[in-house]
Each structure stands twice: as C-alpha cells, then as structure tokens.
Design brief:
This protein is of the alpha+beta class and about 400 residues long. It has ten helices and 18 strands. Strand 1 (about 55-60) and strand 2 (about 65-70) form a beta hairpin. GO terms for molecular function: hydrolase activity; metal ion binding. InterPro entries: ArgE/DapE (IPR010182), Bact_exopeptidase_dim_dom (IPR036264), Peptidase_M20 (IPR002933), Peptidase_M20_dimer (IPR011650), Peptidase_M20A (IPR050072).
Amino acid sequence: MLYKIKDAVDSEMQSIVEDARELIRIPSRNPPGEERRCAEYIHSRLKELGLNSILLHEPYADRPQVIAYARDSRFDELRIVLNGHIDTVPEGSMEGWNVDPFSGMIKDGKIYGRGAADMKSALAIMMHICKIVGRRDLLLCFAIGEERAEPGTSTILKHVRRLGIDRLRYGIVMEPTSLKIATCQMGALWLNVRVKGRSAHASIPTNGINAIVRACKAIGALEAYARDIAKRSISNSSSMISNGSRACIPRCSVTMIAGGVKENIVPDECSFTIDRRVAPYESANDVISEIKALLDAYAEEYEMSMIAERSPVCIDESSILVKGLSDALATIGITDHPVCWCFPGSTDNEHVVREGIESIVWGSGSIEQAHAADEHISIEELRLSTYALALLLSKLGYQE
C-alpha cells in the first residue's frame, strides 16, 4: 500500500505545484474580499479532476466559497472534512518583496508569492487528494473570510448540515504548521481603542490635551503588559489542561494607530488597535478586564470596542488523528516534530470543533512565512505533507 500511495502522490505532484502557482497568480486579498476568481478556478479544476459534486456557496455577495466531495459519495458516508481558506492578506509594501507577490515563481526548490504558505499550496493538495487516495468519505471546504475572522467555514458547515451531511467525525484545517501536529490553537481578541483629548492651537499646547500623548502612554503600558503575559505559565498539576495548551503563550501587540488632523493642532483624538492572543487556559472576559484596567490608568478618557473575537481550541491528545498522523509522519522518516503543539495563530478550526468534529490544525509551510514579504514554501515539504496526509486518510476511520 505504501508504494501505491507514494506512486499516486508522485504522479500528482507536478499538477499540485502548478495548481498552487496558479492560485497564487490569482489575487484573493482580504480586505477587500476578492475571493471570487480564485473560487471559480478551484471549482473548474475540481470538475476536471473528477469531483462532480461541487457547490459554489455564497454567504456574502460576490464572494463564493467551494464545497466538494467525490461524485459517487452518499451524504451518510461523508465523515472527514479538510478545510482551507481561499483569502490571503494583502501583499503590503513592495519594498520588502524581491519577487512579484503574484508570480508563483519557483526558485531554489521553493514556490514564492502571497499565499504560498498561507495557504494556497494546501488548497492545491486538497484539490488532488481525492484522486490520490480514492476515498468517498472526504468533504472538501474551501472557505472565504478567514483572514478577517469572517464566518466562511461556519456557514459552510451549517449549509452542509442542512443538505443532510451530518455524520462528519474528523477534520484537518490545513494551515502552515511545518508538519507539527497542533492539537491546540490560540484565540484572539481584536480591539479598537479611541483615546480622547482636547484640541488647541499647537503654539499654546497647554490649552489642550494631546490625545496622541495619552495614547502613547497607554501603548507603553501595553508593551510592558505584553512582556509580562509572555512569561505566564500554568501549573503542570492541572489535569484539565493538555500539554499542547501549556505551550500556548499569550501575546499582545498594538498593530494600527491613527491620530491628528493638522500639523499645528493639538489632536483631540487618537485611535489604535490591539491584537491580544488568548491561550486556552485564559478567559476572554478576564483579558478584556486586564486591558481596561491599563487603559483606565493611562489613556484616561477612551472608548474601547470589539472588532472581532476568535476562540482558542484544544482537542484531546489521545485523538486517533494525532496517533494516525504521527505514524504517517514516522513512516516517511519524520520523527522529530512535536505533537500536541499549540498553533500560535487563530484559525477556522474553532468553527470545525464547535460543530462537534474532532479536528486538528496541520499542514506544510511555516507560520513564519504567513503574511511575510517574499512568502514561500518548500516543494519538498509540500510533497511530504501530501504523502503523510494520504497515508493518514488511507487508514483513518478503518481503525475504529
């Protein structure tokens, strides 16, 4: 069986690489949410690859997502869901790029471009995996909106349940983990803070209250807070918390700032955005209270509002997914990757697990490449992840 799977993977690799490159060449930035062309390409290619049971599902106007499964599958057979998101972050300033971010260029055994690691190469694997393993119980979900915490995956799962697909048992969200098995992922709070002051002529600044200065004091306090929470740990005696969760480190960053209207006016308003990564052993309400206490002391007059919230996730480390994928990786010679790892980002796995599906985060590519200039992924790692996934899927479900 091993040789058969390896041969099937090897025969598809060139097509997987070419599909990954083509997906990179089709911008699907979010914002603004331009996934349509990419979704239509996936839809068209899946038809060519023999998956005729393909739906374009449109939760938002002009932003379709793709749902697919083998054409001869019955709804009651669909038990394994593979999930990936179509959207990418924008390419940002071109100053940091040495390649065209939408070229899909290959150099030194790596594919370059926005989405190469996060996560168009994974989408290409998903497009070909049914052909490689020949299983009829796979549901493929190509979702929109993940980069802005929009509920694309959630709407897919609710839609397929309405269709009668309600026996899904296992899931893999194929984010870039460098092949490490993430049984946990961080949650996130994105907060907007609007600091108030009082305007005045800049030649008489004491007549006003500088909102930027107030905001800077608050940001300085948040920087100290970020250093403090990064040192937090939980007791090893806590039987309720998994080893993977212990590896989840809280983080806090100020990621956007805006203030002032003219060079000679003391500003009466300054806004900034907080990205707070929430560990599975933390309470979102407690985190918000901590931040409010800092802002009360340093920002003085302010308004804080929630932009979006993502839940942390942990599944049981004894999951058959962990054992099966660990065995698959060992079979192909990868034995040094930790299991029960905590993925530092927030992913759509929160939606998958919330639907009662036993699901992990796992895939090729490095999280360090996600959202970075000159984003790239190793073609060899792409091959290894396809091989390991195929080995896992060839046995998953039959071991129960």
